[in-house]
Design goal:
The complex is a heterodimer of chains A (225) and B (224). Chain A has 225 residues and is mainly α. Chain A is 80% helix and 0% strand. Chain A has one domain. Chain B is mainly α. In chain B, helix 1 crosses helix 6, helix 3 packs across helix 8 (162-173) and helix 3 (47-69) packs antiparallel against helix 9. Classes of the chains: A mainly alpha (225), B mainly alpha (224). Chain A binds chain B through residues 64, 116, 119-120, 123, 126-127, 130-132, 136, 139-140, 143-144, 146-148, 150-151, 154-155, 157-159, 161-163, and chain B through 148, 151-152, 155-156, 158-161, 165, 168-169, 172-173, 175-176, 179-180, 183, 198-199, 202, 205-206, 209-210, 213, 217, 220-221, 223.
């Protein structure tokens, strides 16, 4: 208990420093002005969400191969944290887009594939609620999770090729594009803080799921007795 | 080799079951027909407009139809308690999937080809000059839909609310197919028709990728 409070305080401090850096350390963008500072929330959340879904994918694979309940617990926890961060992305995106592009939403590659990604993991959680037997639920959702994760690059590729009404990638984009070095440092620090938050949430959620699993076993033993 | 001969036998069984009743084919064909007619109310279907929206409309109708058609694929086996027998009858469970997905591709393709002339007449789109390319796109698209759909119907058949669940799982997964097939089909419907090879290649990549995952995961999907 003490450890989790301590780690929560550390993460809170990290987030505070990240917010300070995003508002006061990073230089103001030449074209967009102050509005661009939402980048640190938006992009860092996007990367954290993707990291979370990647953890979910690995957990799904390991569950299918090893059949230990802990991989199922990790899978569901990571899909939920991933959904939380992706929701932040989907909400902060329009807030940023409106003053800069003049519209809240455009059907371009990254927006649309993020939305499809979000939908796929909502379906993943939905599937879990519709299968009662724990082992079966774990296996089926793990298999669907694998299909869903592998689909994501295909979704991105297809939309990027044919629906390109897109601002060119700035980060890891064409030569000549790119952020100011200070902006990079602040962005990576924000990502680091967000990863801390994700780890914290993931740990709590995992423990909750593990307890649920234990209760399930106890309940079944009681019913059998 | 055993895989191919097993698949052939199972494919024969799938086709026999369907062509005895023709239930899937008739219901799906009527469904797509209804969707095609209803879509005409959502915009003014002049030839010019149809060229712009027709391809997407057609593929949406096909995807919805597929999510209905793929429903009984494993459900039927489960309701008749024949899944275990099927599993025992083949050495490689991939044969079961292969047979089912080939059968589903054939059914989908048949429905699509049956309704293509109807669509062309009603929406005033010329299809004859590019017919062979259309068949290729329909084949590649339907194959992708069937591969993903057969796999997911094995998942949804084991859950509650399965009739609603399959479209929810399947449709977002099929986004790449919808985008690529629509683009290629739109090119073929164009006033100066052209083949968009990038899209054809993309569909082939999707098919191969999903077939590979299905091959790797097939045995887990059918675990009891």
């Amino acid at each position: 208990m003490k450890k989790s409070i301590l780690s929560a305080i550390v993460v809170l401090l990290l987030l505070g420093v990240a917010a300070y850096a995003a508002f006061f350390v990073a230089p103001t963008d030449a074209k967009q002005g102050v509005v661009y500072r939402i980048l640190y929330l938006h992009v860092a959340s996007a990367w954290t969400g993707l990291t979370s879904f990647f953890i979910c994918f690995i957990a799904n694979l390991l569950y299918v191969l090893r059949r230990q309940p802990r991989w199922d617990w990790l899978g569901v926890s990571a899909s939920e944290t991933g959904l939380v961060f992706t929701t932040v992305v989907l909400l902060s995106g329009p807030i940023w887009a409106h003053p800069v592009w003049g519209i809240y939403w455009t059907w371009d590659a990254r927006l649309t594939s993020t939305f499809v990604l979000w939908l796929l993991y909502v379906s993943y959680l939905l599937l879990r609620t519709l299968v009662e037997e724990p082992d079966r639920r774990a296996l089926l959702s793990a298999l669907f999770g694998i299909f869903a994760f592998i689909d994501v690059p295909l979704v991105f590729g297809s939309i990027r090729w044919w629906r390109t009404q897109h601002p060119q990638p700035i980060i890891m984009g064409a030569p000549g594009s790119g952020l100011d070095p200070t902006m990079y440092r602040v962005l990576f620090f924000t990502w680091f803080a967000m990863l801390g938050l994700m780890t914290l949430l993931l740990r709590q959620r995992y423990r909750l799921e593990a307890m649920r699993g234990d209760i399930e076993i106890i309940r079944r033993e009681l019913e059998a007795a | 080799m055993a895989l191919l001969s097993n698949t052939a036998v199972l494919l024969g069984k799938e086709l026999r079951t369907e062509f005895r009743s023709r239930e899937l084919l008739t219901t799906t064909t009527v469904f797509v027909l209804i969707v095609i007619v209803l879509f005409s109310f959502s915009f003014n279907p002049t030839s010019e407009e149809s060229r712009r929206f027709g391809a997407g409309l057609l593929w949406l109708a096909f995807l919805f139809a597929a999510s209905l058609m793929l429903q009984p694929c494993f459900l039927r086996e489960q309701n008749n308690d024949t899944l275990s027998a099927l599993r025992l009858s083949v050495s490689d469970p991939f044969a079961i999937f292969l047979a089912k997905l080939v059968a589903n591709t054939l059914f989908l393709l048949l429905t699509e080809l049956l309704l293509l002339p109807v669509f062309a007449v009603m929406y005033n789109v010329a299809i004859l000059p590019m017919l062979h390319w259309l068949v290729l796109v329909f084949f590649l698209g339907s194959l992708g839909v069937s591969i993903a759909g057969t796999a997911l119907s094995a998942i949804s058949a084991q859950a509650r609310m399965r009739e609603l669940l399959l479209p929810l799982l399947l449709l977002p997964l099929l986004t790449p197919i919808l985008v690529a097939s629509t683009e290629v089909t739109a090119g073929l419907f164009d006033r100066a028709p052209f083949v968009q090879w990038k899209g054809v290649g993309f569909l082939a990549v999707f098919d191969v990728a999903f077939l590979t995952i299905l091959w790797l995961l097939g045995e887990y999907l059918l675990e009891e």
